[in-house]
Amino acid sequence: MTEQAGYLEFIESFNHIHKYLKKYTNSDDNVSFSDLLYKAKKHPMIHLYLDELHLFRKLRNIIVHQTDDFEQLIAYPSDEVVERMKFIEQQLVDPSTVIVFKTEVIKFNAADAIADVLKVSGEKEILKLPIYENDKFVGLVTSRGIAKWLQKHIENNTIELSGSVKDLLEYEKKSQYEFIAQSMTVYGAWNLFQSSPNKLDALLLTESGRPDDRIEAVITYDDVLKYIYTHDQYVFN
Questions:
Q1: Taking Cα atoms as reference points, which of 184, 7, 28 lies closest to residue 98?
Q2: What's the Cα-to-Cα distance from 32 to each of 57, 62, 214, rounded to whole Å?
Q3: Whole-prediction pTM value?
Q4: CB 191 within 8 A of CB 91
Q5: Which of 137, 128, 136, 131 is nearest to 111 (CA)?
Q6: b/e map of 85-121 (b: 16 or more CB within 10 Å)?
Q7: Residue 19: pLDDT band by 50, 70, 90 thresholds?
Q8: Is residue 160 within 8 Å of residue 122, measured between CB atoms?
């Protein structure tokens, strides 16, 4: 990329972010970029990229105020800075949503045998299973709940695997999951895991975010971290 091309792409991307921030905060043209960042700081992605955006704001000010003559520019954005700016722009304007986690979800009925749950959980390495009763979602069985049930039912070093899945739900906390809609961004999901007063086991994805819709994914914190790390390692540097 030539220095002039990098300069123009950087400024164009910066202006797109500036326009997005004005629209998001419902601000007029008189509000500075710095003030827009402050107003939008609770936005999950603005919060995430806040320090970088402030640095890019300073770089932009140096660039645009020095001269209009490209041959006399004393500072240019590097290719890495330009690509980073464009990436942040894309995440704000057209972000990845949690639909990327959509997959086939294995579910059980409350009347199913506990042995069946343990078999599937072990074979497929699934640690969180939605449970239904009369086609209505009634809870999420986790490895923690299974472990607690096993501890209560061990005798003479043996475990009697009698009972139904519904018995496992007595060892779970209903507050440790939330339903989310397909429209939520990946970074919004990450922010939800971090900001929730409850330590969430999972986010349950449905089309509209309502419990009566079909569950299309059981998303864990590790799932979100893996996705973000794969697509944006800057977050963890």
A1: 184
A2: 10, 15, 44
A3: 0.76
A4: no
A5: 131
A6: bbebbebbeeeebbeebeeebeebebebebeebbeeb
A7: very high
A8: no
